[in-house]
Every structure is written in C-alpha cells, then in structure tokens.
Amino acid sequence: MVAGERLVEVVAVMDRLRSAGGCPWDAKQTHASLMPYLLEEAYEAYEALETGDLAHLREELGDLLLQIVFHARISEEPNDGTAWSIDDVAGDLVDKLTRRHPHVFAGASADDLEGSWEDLKAAEKGRTSVTEGIPLGQPALMLAAKLQRRAAKLGVPSIAYDGVGGELWALVERCTAQGLDPEVELRGVARAFRDRLAVLERGTTPETDEDWRAAFS
Fold this sequence. Notes:
Number of helices: 11
Distance between the termini: 53 Å
Number of domains: 2
Largest sheet: none
Shape: extended
C-alpha cells in the first residue's frame, strides 16, 4: 500500500456522508456549527500526548483529520465563489513547507532555522508586527508566553503589571526564563490534583484544613 492511500478513502467517505442520501446530521453542518468539535478534538489529542497514550493519540488524530476533511468538503460545495477543496488544502501545505525549508529544497544554509522560518513567514504574509498571527483565542498562559517570546526578540524588557493578572504574567515570565511551558506546568499540577482528589473520594474524608493539605502533599 502506498503511504497516504487510505486518505483518498477518507475523502470518499465524507463525500458520501455529505451527499444526497447520506447522513442528515453531516449534511446540515456548517463551518460555524463544527467549530466546537475542532477545539474539542484538538484538546483530546493534546490529552493523549500528556498521558503518553499513543493508541489513543492515533484515534484522536483521526478525529482531527475528520474535521479537516469535513471543512474542506463544505467549502467545495457551491457558495459565494470562494470554493476550495481538500486538494487545495494539501497543495497549499506542500507549497508552504517547500518555501519555508529552503535549506532542504533550495540548497540554503541550515543556520538559525527558527529565525529563518519566522522571517519567511512574515515576508510571505506581509506582516508588519511581531504580534500579527498570534491567535488570541488560545489559552491565556499560552498567549502570554507567546507574546513574551515575541517581545524578547525585539529586546523589550520585562514589564510589570498590577493585580492578580500581573502576578500571573510574571509567573509566565519565570517559566519562560527557565525554559518551561507554563501551560504544561499548570496542567501537570491540575492533573495531579485531580488524580489525588479522585483517590480521596474513595477513602476517608479529611476533617481539617491541615488534614486536607497533608492529603495533597
């Protein structure tokens, strides 16, 4: 079997589900109605990586692929003249990867790969600010870390802010300085708390604050 051969089957199955005589639920979906599922599947794939469950990751990546194929199928249908297909998505990706890896496809130097990638991306998208292209909808810790990394490239010094938000901002800076991902660090603590809480639910409930703290230590 040729690598990627079954991807053609995925496209064919989606076409069948979306066409007349297919699945009524699939047929009525829109880009907007599918938005929650795209996020949900991404988070489930992320969780599979957190737990190291590669079998589950395989399943969740399939669910993510479904979302990609679903959106492409919707856009392929008659609309406002901006129709595009899964082949357009794949073609754009191939072109982008080729452009952004000149050290592989065009004999360029492999020095400073991260900087070259960012420069090429900024040039092709016509960006005039380091803040462009940063999705504001991502989790707040990830957003803060991304903004701080972009600012550091400009030589912007550490900025202090008042209030609890400012304290969180400073903690993100501490994580970045130590080479840590604040989102990963907090999620790790939250997962440990969740697991311990589940164990305690099945045992004797601590009676005092001191007992609770000891139970979670």
